[in-house]
Amino acid sequence: MVRKIIRKTTKRSTFTDDTLKRALDEISRGVTTQYAAHKKYNIPQMTLSYHRMELRGVNSSSMGRGTAIPYDEEAKLAECLITMEKWGWGLPRKDIFNTVEKFVIKNNFKTPFKNGRPGEDWYLGFSKRHNLSIKKPQSVEFARKKCLDPFIINDYFDILKKQLDALNLHDKPRQIWNLVETNFCLDPCKTKIVEKRGAASSRTTAGTGRENTTVLMAVSADGFKAPPLIVFKAKNMWDGWVAPPSEEFPGTTYATTAKGWMEANIFLRYFEKHLLDIFGPERPILLLYMMVTHHMLIKE
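RESULT FIELD:
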């Protein structure tokens, strides 16, 4: 089936939507007759008749017929799909077809759909009209996704404001610090590689997916960056892992753990021997420690 139609006529280009609305308004108010409006605005009489009898829906930018489903209902469906995707419940194309089929049958809409079920052409037009596309969702841990709940986020900022009020730190950005922990996966199968087009993909030895290098970085509210802490998976630190002095961030601290994850004793040593000196003598200090699954407020 042809999915890209090339228009061969230009009869719709003789008038605009504003002109059509003006002509229909004059006819409805009795200012002019349908024939006179046809002559005045160069609009076909059948077009005027169809619109007066409400046999035409919303005009499209392609100058074609109205949508099979009322445009307002389509817009509501598109908005619902966008909202569901935003909260992690995006629907695949098959489920959209099922939903539209039930909606059409329940509301007794007269559509060109076979047994009320839309086809591929309807979906292509629907996605184009409402700027939708098919994407592969990114995987995220349940605990992390749960923290995106607006009620949790609002509670977090409420607590943060109470702390700023209690410590009187609204105008002291150097005494507000954000400490963020992240990691880099070392599994080779997680990295895309360049290969010959059309040839079978080569195989690579995959790890457990749990081998990581952890990086801890602190930044103050006024933009001052503290030297980071880098934690490798190893028993001992090797000189080759350390960046040259001319390339590394000044004062970078290195450590090793059995799995490359942050451990309490490593963090405590970094906090006492490095961060406290960087914070300076001003007190109090508000430290926001953002980890993978939760946030902590630390005040000194």
